[in-house]
Write a structure and sequence with these properties.
With 203 residues, the chain is mostly beta strands. It is 2% helix and 44% strand. A four-stranded antiparallel beta sheet has the order 1-2-3-4, with no helix packed on it. The longest helix has 5 residues, at 188-192. The radius of gyration is 18 Å and the shape is globular.
């Protein structure tokens, strides 16, 4: 087995994602995300814009359905959506600056910045319909992937949300209190009030 080291971040690396056979993405406490070419063993792009530690990143092979009718980039300027936009792969990063950013993987352009959390985002994930993010203040938000509007906000506890998972019907949340909580999209009231009852396993 051949091993090698990729150097470029200047602080803790918080998440890594493989993309195809020869591409790797990483994010770090240095407030950056990076794209690496594994054949060349070097960084080929740096994504900058967050103002605090970048805790998580997730990738999609297709372009994001950008907010309409007037999507804006990180500088607040309107963008024109064309067919090329609809084919470009994208990445979403979550940061302790309380925002998520949507990036064009190829160009490095920040396509949108998603605001809503009061405290830092420790974890996030998404699929074609929903983005789920978990915050330091114990809140979890469910966002529409197309419009980036917030659909639900619920509080698991006063503890930070360290990890989230998403399926077609459920959101799973892990927090600093040692709890794993499950919420069901088929019962929308459970998303805005209390989690489903816990089931305890034998020690």
């Amino acid at each position: 087995m051949t091993s090698f080291t990729l150097s470029g971040h200047t602080d803790w690396v918080n998440s890594v994602r493989l993309y195809g056979e020869n591409t790797l993405f990483s994010c770090s406490d240095d407030m950056l995300a990076k794209r690496w070419d594994l054949e060349q063993r070097r960084c080929v792009h740096t994504y900058s814009g967050h103002t605090h530690h970048v805790q998580s990143l997730h990738l999609s092979s297709r372009a994001p359905p950008l907010p309409r009718p007037s999507p804006r980039n990180a500088k607040g300027k309107s963008r024109v959506i064309n067919e090329e936009d609809e084919q470009r792969p994208f990445m979403i990063t979550g940061s302790l600056d309380s925002t998520m950013r949507v990036w064009d993987i190829e160009t490095g352009e920040c396509l949108n910045t998603i605001f809503g959390h009061v405290e830092g985002i420790w974890s996030m994930t998404f699929d074609s319909l929903r983005i789920v993010s978990g915050s330091n203040d114990g809140s979890v938000k469910v966002w529409d992937t197309s419009s980036h509007s917030c659909l639900h906000t619920f509080h698991t506890s006063s503890a930070a949300v360290n990890c989230v998972a998403l399926s077609d019907t459920r959101v799973v949340v892990g927090d600093n209190d040692g709890n794993v909580r499950i919420y069901d999209f088929r019962n929308t009231r459970s998303l805005d009030t209390k989690p489903l009852p816990n089931t305890s396993a034998a020690n």
